[in-house]
Amino acid sequence: MEFDQIIKLIQLKFENNVYLIIIPIVLLIVTISFIISSFKKPTINTTPSPSPTTSSSLNKKNKKKNPSPPLQSTATTITTKLNQQKQYTDTPIPSPTPTTINNTIASPNPISISQPTIQENKLFFKVFRGGDIIECIKFSEDGKYLSFCGTERSIRMYLFDSLINLKIPQSFNLQLPFDNATCISWGNKTLYATLNESQKLVSYNILDQKSLQTGKSYEEGFSVNLETKSKIKSICSSSQSPYILTCSGDDTILKIFNLKGQIIQTLNNGQIKNYMAAMTQCGRFFAIASFSSEVKIYECIKKKDGSVSECKRVMSLTGYKTCIYSIDFSKDGMKIITSSKDSSIRLWNLNVNYKLEVDPECTYSITSEIGVIELIAISPDCTVFAGVNQTTNVIGFFNLSNGNLIDSVNLGNNHAKVNSIAWSPDSKYLISGGNDKLLYIWSNPKKL
Ligand SMILES: *[C@@H]1O[C@H](CO)[C@@H](O)[C@H](O)[C@H]1NC(C)=O
Ligand SMILES: *[C@@H]1O[C@H](CO)[C@@H](O)[C@H](O)[C@H]1NC(C)=O
Ligand SMILES: *[C@@H]1O[C@H](CO)[C@@H](O)[C@H](O)[C@H]1NC(C)=O
Ligand SMILES: *[C@@H]1O[C@H](CO)[C@@H](O)[C@H](O)[C@H]1NC(C)=O
Ligand SMILES: *[C@@H]1O[C@H](CO)[C@@H](O)[C@H](O)[C@H]1NC(C)=O
Ligand SMILES: CC(=O)N[C@H]1CO[C@H](CO)[C@@H](O)[C@@H]1O
């Protein structure tokens, strides 16, 4: 039945009380359109700016443009934000000034935020940036910095709050010496990175906001040779952990460094190929996903002075028949989730008496509804986990308590291969990034 037919019907029923009908309908339409508009990214200006429309749409697209000023910005606030950003940028990224004032930006390095185009309710927004492929995304534990690296000569740092709330986010880059970073990880106000060509482990002390405003945002720390030719798959650290763990892929070597960058221990996981390592927040345990069907869990013993004396294998997750692609610990370290080549996802309870050689119990094993999951991450609030199928580029959000799929998004083409995902520490957002060089910021479907 057509809409106007319905109206007619209602009108017939109520005879002359037309206004009684029209007013509620108008109210309904207004409410619906309000609901629809509230699904869109809040910072995007929906109210038309007093200047010509090109200006407002240009501002939108230019939000991420680094030091080059938004062309038509009439608003003075934009300028202030730009100045702010300049202070946060150690070395401004030279970006050619766009020559058009159209919606499409002529610059080859567009850095901007777009309105949602896919799965509108879940995509909070996406960030177009001037960089290349994104390999690794990590949040600082306090959620202040969103950092990522990839095929570029710098590690990018966004002040996450400004990325979510401001038109011009505050950011700076950590410059890398003729190299690209493959993995990054946060410690106590320190960022650790592994470099691709020089095979080094490097550290950067991230200076606080006050120092940022004086222009200096970081200091270089140590730089040590990893002494491996194999590609580093993971680096693990935390503000509480007295060590940094690196996990290399082909030679299956795990290296444990103290926070000064001195090697403490070298371990061979001996499982043909390592896919990744994960560590508990406090650093007491770490686990390795590998080509073998067994996940080995190691414990690191602390000495009285807080440093690490030794890490040794204490538990195993067994029962799989295929290789394990990805693992993640819950924030409290009591659970671990695993995803394997046979499309199964298993949650394990680690709260067992492993000293009596009791192995962790499998809480559930489910078959993933989105196929094989190669990246898995539990939300910090321990309610959902996200999983990525890197062939279809589907990101699924699952209920952690039973493994049910809550929601999914599909990036759907091979150029968009997702290489990394990271939860914001408040569990509100999942960030993904990969071969399409974009950062996607997804809303946690449980928090919508
Ligand atoms: C910009 O807009 C003008 C007029 O609308 C059009 O002639 C021109 O081709 C556009 N330029 C680009 C790069 O889209
Ligand atoms: C690392 O180096 C290899 C070649 O040595 C290259 O194929 C790969 O793209 C590089 N990765 C990054 C992130 O630069
Ligand atoms: C982090 O470092 C600061 C000093 O730089 C220290 O006061 C603080 O206790 C450290 N936090 C942790 C969790 O180790
Ligand atoms: C992703 O999912 C599809 C469909 O379930 C499956 O065919 C594919 O094998 C999965 N990806 C990988 C890497 O296995
Ligand atoms: C997750 O599952 C639990 C237990 O079945 C249920 O109580 C909860 O509502 C579910 N959460 C979501 C977001 O589906
Ligand atoms: C070793 C090295 O620097 N590799 C690449 C890092 O990324 C840039 C792109 O920004 C490439 O040009 C380099 O070749």
TrEMBL record:
An example GO CC term for this entry is:
endoplasmic reticulum
| Compositional bias (Polar residues) | 71-90
Write the record's keywords in alphabetical order, separated by commas: Membrane, Repeat, Transmembrane, Transmembrane helix, WD repeat
Task: List, as start-end ranges, the regions of compositional bias called Low complexity.
Answer: 45-59
A single GO BP annotation from the record? endoplasmic reticulum unfolded protein response
PROSITE patterns named in the record: WD_REPEATS_1, WD_REPEATS_2, WD_REPEATS_REGION
Region feature (Disordered) = 45-106
WD repeats span: 317-358, 411-443
Tell me where the transmembrane regions lie. Answer: 18-39
SUPFAM superfamilies this protein is in? WD40 repeat-like
Q: Which PANTHER family match?
A: TRANSDUCIN BETA-LIKE PROTEIN 2 (PTHR44321)
Designated name of the protein: Anaphase-promoting complex subunit 4 WD40 domain-containing protein
